[in-house]
Amino acid sequence: MKTLNLYVTKAFLTTFLMAIGLLTFAMLGARMIDIIDHIAQGIPLKYFFLFALYTMPVVLTFTVPWAILVSVILVFGRLSADSEITAMRACGISILQIISPIMVAAFLMTLVCLYLQVNLGPKLLGESRVMISGAVIENPIAIFEPGRQVQFENNLIYIDDKVEGDRVKNIQIFTMDEKSREYEQDITAANGRFLVDKERQILTVELYDCMIRDRKSKPETRAFSEKVSFSFNYGQEFNKFRIGIRPKYMTMRDLLARIHIDRELGRSTIDLEVEMNQRIAFALSPIAFMLLGLPLAIRTSRRETSVGIFLSVVLAGFFFLSIILCESLTSHPALMPQYLLWLPNLIYQVAGAVMIYRIVKR
Known about the structure:
Layout: H1 2-31, H2 33-40, H3 46-81, H4 84-90, H5 95-138, E1 150-152, E2 155-162, E3 167-176, E4 183-197, E5 202-214, E6 221-233, H6 234-238, H7 240-243, H8 252-264, H9 270-283, H10 285-300, H11 305-327, H12 337-340, H13 343-361
Antiparallel strand pairs: 1-2, 2-3, 3-4, 4-5, 5-6
Helix pairs in contact: 1-3, 1-5, 3-5, 3-10, 3-11, 5-9, 5-10, 8-9, 10-13, 11-13
């Protein structure tokens, strides 16, 4: 029996390590796109590695359960297709004895995901945002990318190309009314320059050979100017993040404290409760995936890797999308989204437990 458990555990762990490596690399790469853009604009390369390190715990909360599902379907699908499970049962070994090492592994991975979701992940994710904000404060010009609008206060700034250092070509600034958010001025310049005062955290935009279109006046007027300057307190803009921490960056202790305070003040706590329940629901997904994946793999009895991967993608995708959909119902508290979040876990675990029971009784 010990030899059998080692055989199943070795096959599972080998597949699990390969799956989690590939999935983590793919999901982490998707999160790194924005930081790569900033690095291309001048932010030091060290922030790439720091950002990857800080976001790794949050990524693992998705890839660990998914890797468990992939491993279970591939390993037990092959064992079933090769009639190894039938041979084990013919020797008097029950299904529960065969899958017991996987159940233990899923439980341990659930504890890891719970710690990442409850404490470490949100804390490091918040620190990553602060880190990137600090990096941008050190080099604010880096946020200006050709072809992308950047908003400072009530102004939208668009540049067509960067030339040398702080110089840009074809720059356009839209000034909006603070209340109506309608455009008041449209300033277009063939050339421009960014001047940074790091001590005062002031960014000055100088425009040369400008065409100024004033939409406030009736009728609309146009004027030409050789030089126009705008100054922005970029430090104040990027430090706004530190003033109010969003629920997704709070630890579980902070969430519970915030819920208690808001209830005492008579405020709605639906968004905080949804965040708290979502984290726990995600953390328990390894057990749900294990319970559902095992009987499906044994019943389908397929050796093909592509079939197993496709099945895991469908099951994991449905699970994650269901929880995200329930999270989006925060604006409809009457539907109680904080409790609807548990439906995917409940459905997967009950369905998996029923199928395992039927296989055991066969």
